[in-house]
Amino acid sequence: MPEFLQHLANAVILGGTYALLGIGLTLIFGIMRVVNFTHGELYTFGAYMAFMLAGMFGLNFFASLALAATLGMALGALIEFALLRPLKGADIDTTMLVMIGAGIAMQAGEQLMWGGVAKSVPNPFPTEPVVLGPVSVGPIRLFVLAVAVVLLVVFYLLLNRTKLGIAMRATFQDPDTAALMGVNNGLMYTLTFAIGSGLAAVAGALLGPIFVVTPTMGDLVALKAFAIVILGGLGNIPGATIGGFVLALAEEFGAGYLSSGYRDAMGFLLIIAVLLVRPQGLFAAKERIG
Amino acid sequence: MLKLKDITVCYGKIPAVRNVSLEVGEGELVTLIGANGAGKTTTLRAISGLLPLAAGEITFRHKPIGNTPARDVLALGLAHCPEGRRVFPQLSVRENLEMGAYLRHDREGIARDMERIFDRFPRLQERLHQAAGTLSGGEQQMLAIARALMSRPKMVLLDEPSLGLAPNLVERTFEIISDIRKEGTTVLMVEQNALAALEMCDRSYLLETGQVVERGTGREMLGNPHIQKAYLGG
């Protein structure tokens, strides 16, 4: 039982970050319909920015996180503006190839800039775990979970309660009609891509201090983000949130009770199983927000 | 108020509308009639900035609006209620109405206008938090019209408001449109139901294969033998 609770706690903590990655990608892939192969690289970018700001420039850890997220948004906006906007109306294959190219270029750029040696992001949290009954958790992991939950809530409020969020949803449901209401669709596309990218970057910046930062850290993460999006149903934001936690649970319990060597395989096994039974994802399309 | 001078609109290389000129005066209710594919919707979409002009000029309140983004056309006071209602299906009724007021920033004015819309369409208030896609066809049409009015337009373009509605709802829709006009909003309406369109309008234009072939007051058009034969069932 204590072991079970420990795994559960680990899964919930990991799930928060997975959820951030998942909703970021479901915005871009599920709602904007861009198969985004740069998502993993934006995650890596966020982690390197946190390293650069906190580790090299000695900036305050929390300010570094916020700045890394902002820079991730800016990079996302740039990608949308420079690569996707000129491709408006292009074939999905063309867009996909361009995004694959952009992803490879970004990874190569990270390799060039930072080298292949893993970096670690310094953080101000004590290493002594917090012990709650049978469960012990590193303080930084609690912080990561708290930030993830806050961001998830802020994101929901943005999308559902603000004029901007309603306009974003309207644009992706019917761009022409949204334009007739006075929405600047181009701006909505850029903003949506930027927000999705910012969520990926913040996930990277949050996990950077827990794991280590390497140029290829985004590869597996990108695959997992796609898995989460598909689990939750394309474009379904609550679905992607739950999908993130489901994937984390599968990984933690799979690693804990079966074999830790198969940790990353667990999630994909789960996805194969889900897709066999429910090809539309766990949550039907009619519940989607976008 | 609105003036189209020799406009041509193309899909690719093929012109869908050729050398169309028409005019709508302040306070008028003008209809555009014609068969499917005659270019009526294309004309409206060019006016509101959704389609580029290949040639010609459009002015609204003496300002050129040809090839102007839809957002800027709306900001000048010209709203467009598109064909097929096009409510945002996954947004609630309230969110749809809020989208109608997207360019406005006067919170109180918006709230007041929403109240007025509920007086006129009580059904929308009952369904305020429901997704618009779950409304009936008639309710969606009311919502689409109400949404267009939320921008407080000086003029509104209505594209086939009666399309796909039951006969009693068609009549109700036309009553509402007459009311809107009585309240001082200029209306340019595309309508396939030629009889109804001609009976309620001040003036009308008949489009055939992308060109204006007849024009006149509603009464004149009703008496026109060509129109009687081809559009009013003899």
Summarize the structure.
Chain A has 290 residues and is an all-alpha fold. Chain A has helices at 2-31, 39-56, 61-84, 92-114, 139-161, 163-173, 175-180, 185-207, 217-232, 237-258, 263-277, and strands at 130-132, 135-137.
Fraction of helical residues of chain B:
25-40%
Oligomer: heterodimer
Largest sheet of chain B: 6 strands, mixed
In the CATH hierarchy, the architecture of chain B is 3-Layer(aba) Sandwich
Described by strand count, sense and barrel closure, the largest sheet of chain A is: 2 strands, antiparallel
Radius of gyration of chain B over all CA atoms, rounded: 17 Å
- Structural category of chain A is mainly alpha
CATH topology of chain B: Rossmann fold
Q: Number of helical segments of chain A?
A: 11
Q: How confident overall, as mean pLDDT of chain B?
A: 94
β-strand percent of chain B reads 25-35%
- End-to-end separation of chain B in angstroms reads 34 Å
Shape of chain B: globular
Low-confidence stretches of chain B: none
Pair of chains with the largest interface and how many residues each contributes: A-B, 19 and 24 residues
Strand content of chain A: under 5%
The CATH superfamily title of chain B: P-loop containing nucleotide triphosphate hydrolases
Widest sheet, order of strands of chain A: 1-2
